[in-house]
Amino acid sequence: MRHYFLLVILFLGFIQCKESESSANLNTSVQNSIQHAEGFSIEKHEGFSIVKVSNAYPEAKDNYTYVLHKKGVQIPDSLQQFTSIEVPIKKVIVTSTTHIPALESLGIENTLIGFPTTQYISSEKTRALIDAGKVRDLGSNQGLNTEVILDIQPDVIVGFSVDGDLKTYKNLEKNGQKIIFNGDWTEKTPLGKAEWIKFFGALYDLDEKATEIFNSIEKEYNSVLALAKNAKTQPTIFAGAIYEDQWFLPQGDSWAAYFLKEANGNYLWKDSKGTGSLALSFESVLDKAKDADFWIGPGQFGSIQQILDNNPNYIHFKAVKNKNVYSFSTKKGKTGGVIYYELAQNRPDLVLKDIVKILHPEALPNHELFFFEKLK
User: Which of 101, 272, 339, 358 has an alpha carbon within 20 to 30 A of 203's alpha carbon?
Assistant: First the structure.
């Protein structure tokens, strides 16, 4: 009987410990560990983290909360309503090429098992996995192949949406799939976008490694920023290109315009409001930018001759006459994807170095352009 009562006491004590552990784990004083990104936060608790995504797509009204917990950890009752994910995850589907560099930086690209339209991926490392049949093609982002997804059974699908159309993801959730939204592309600042590597670090229980990677990028970025601020000149810049008879160029609050400002350049449309694109006539751009020092990002043009063949009137731009035209679209991966679109937001330090090198070459005499190329 004594042994019986002892077992009962131990059992009740175990339950009491587990219950108190549950409530103790949820420390409301824990601070968000994200500094630059506005679209997500991470609160770290004992044995689990709470990830909140507040801007999964432009003008998103819904916030999403996810509980990432280690194996065997009991989640507090107050968090049971949210999607829970055991970390580290071992199999993942991601849906944007911008997610690929984060996986590779963390050294866990081998966990990628599916991607929509794999031909868009440029990275040689991940392309090798695709060629080896380790990454399944899931069709288009708007119509992910549910049959394939249910066959390969990922631990998590990292989704994103351009316009808030979530039908495909909701259908997958009904079929037992765990979806976690990533809104890295909606961030307004370069360091804000890059900090989303911590989002993937949390999924793989690699928070410290993700923080180290980001801190290194941030340090390099700020170092180049300081060099740019000391530049004695502020060259004038125009950007964008003609598409279907309209010239599309970045608005003043956009990510691209932000880089030009950070590099101490005078972007001629810096005062325009908005984070998207302006649609202007060729004549209005020529009128304002004919004497600009640089043309950065001329669409798909690969040479000065292509520019002039398209429209001889481009010769009236001083930047074209002086061959001060720089493009990122000439550097592509094996299957034709533009490397800049995949990697740039993860490596804003390299983007800023390139633009500072273009505008103020004396500030970075030893830097070789990584994303950009001067058109000949």
Answer: 339
| Average pLDDT rounded to a whole number, residues 62-66 | 95
pLDDT of residue 238: 98
Distance of alpha carbon 67 from alpha carbon 73, whole angstroms: 11
Q: In degrees, to the nearest 5, what angle opens at C-alpha 201 toward C-alphas 122 and 28?
A: 145
* pTM confidence score: 0.90
- Is residue 27 pLDDT above 70, yes or no? no
Q: In whole angstroms, give the CA distance from residue 56 to residue 42.
A: 15
Angle at 56 between CA 53 and CA 57, to 5 degrees: 155
Residue 367 — pLDDT band, cuts 50, 70, 90? very high
Residue 294 CB partners (closer than 8 Å, separation 6+): 235, 236, 237, 238, 265, 319, 324, 325, 326, 358, 359
Tokens at 226, concatenated? 């300081």
Percentage of residues of the chain with pLDDT beyond 70: 92
Sign of CA dihedral 93, 96, 101, 102: negative
Contacts of 245 (CB under 8 A, 6+ apart): none
Which long-range contacts does 363-367 make (Cβ < 8 Å, 24+ apart)? 363/227, 363/228, 363/230, 363/231, 364/224, 364/227
Do the beta carbons of residue 359 and residue 140 sit within 8 Å? no
- The C-alpha atoms of residue 193 and residue 215 are separated, in whole angstroms, by 13
